Amino acid sequence: xxxxxxxxxxxxxxxxxxxxxxxxxxxxxxxxxxxxxxxxxxxxxxxxxxxxxxxxxxxxxxxxxxxxxxxxxxxxxxxxxxxxxxxxxxxxxxxxxxxxxxxxxxxxxxxxxxxxxxxxxxxxxxxxxxxxxxxxxxxxxxxxxxxxxxxxxxxxxxxxxxxxxxxxxxxxxxxxxxxxxxxxxxxxxxxxxxxxxxxxxxxxxxxxxxxxxxxxxxxxxxxxxxxxxxxxxxxxxxxxxxxxxxxxxxxxxxxxxxxxxxxxxxxxxxxxxxxxxxxxxxxxxxxxxxxxxxxxxxxxxxxxxxxxxxxxxxxxxxxxxxxxxxxxxxxxxxxxxxxxxxxxxxxxxxxxxxxxxxxxxxxxxxxxxxxxxxxxxxxxxxxxxxxxxxxxxxxxxxxxxxxxxxxxxxxxxxxxxxxxxxxxxxxxxxxxxxxxxxxxxxxxxxxxxxxxxxxxxxxxxxxxxxxxxxxxxxxxxxxxxxxxxxxxxxxxxxxxxxxxxxxxxxxxxxxxxxxxxxxxxxxxxxxxxxxxxxxxxxx
Length: 539
Description:
13 helices, 5-stranded mixed β-sheet
């Protein structure tokens, strides 16, 4: 599959541990269960012994705890004896084995990544990377990191040969290597050794762990793919993610839970294309959700681009406004425009959900415990989930309409404002998941071969997009713009003004001030020069 004609996207899948028929898997679960039960027995015995010498607890509490620990010990001993006799693996054992595996894998990978990052930092400083040219820096970093990605005791040497950090799952694959390499290169480009920065970012122990493509597989219960397609939407249709080899679940096996949400059909369609081979899956990662109860597979897939006849000279500019979430305009057509959504409606619904959650939270403070409190806690989670889903769905709507507008005019490019470090009058965006919207636009655009670019936002709302004229006070209000040039079409309009957000969108569409980093004083000065706006020193 040609990488130039594909887009790489990630789909979040809930996965539940289940049984595998592989002997290697059964052996792993058996060994883990025996060890786990023996450790539980040892732990409960230690608790009972420590209880005897604990003088801070009264006699009644001691007896209560002793009985509790004794019951736990008895249950663990009975479970161990029964398992030794029968070696019958239960769902509870599968869950505990798999959940422990995921947790340990996350912690192990976080330790490994942090060790590599620390080692890389001191290696770069020792070799004077900060004094190298950009191309030389990248070449050095990539060569430097090779020993860090080798397995322990590799014939070519590994930095982990004398370190008590091991990868319990074997090799990590390209996804792991690319992530760390890109993080280090990006940190150096952003001034790692300058401006007070003295270390690379670190990974927390709840960070996702990488799953190499070679250890991934997808399977189902049917004899053929055609038969799977016939039953894909039925409740008893089980789709499996096999971890440990391509279609060989030697490490862990999961049932993919597609849920009952509105995107269920879309998810099933995507999975069908993964099973058929139309979509190629790549190295991905696994983690627990925020509750720590659900296991999540962040599946990375390559989706072929749809062939579209796009015009290299046509650019869509998108302005994110206070009254209107997104306004689209073209660089080539002064009449084409699209006003998408209403910030008032967005904030009204979101604020309503937030207020409901806040009231429930206040009620919880006055509720001591019991069944009523548990119900309210679940309701609180539902409000949080509802707000998150509302924001996500709204961003889906806005991004889809932007892409639709671009396709309507065969635009090759979409220009978005780079708002990092830029405050201006975009205060409404503080209540907006702008970066989620941006990522949605990017992956949807990539599907059709449309290129998304970030633009310096400075002065785009103050300069006339028709004639380029600038003077203070042209933006009369939040919604109104009147060009100060008497000869300009945007000065003599029927209404007496043009929409200010539309004017900004046209400037964004026409702009060649591409920007990948945050807006700085230097970038503001560059924008002033670009639009022929005199600075304070020139006035």
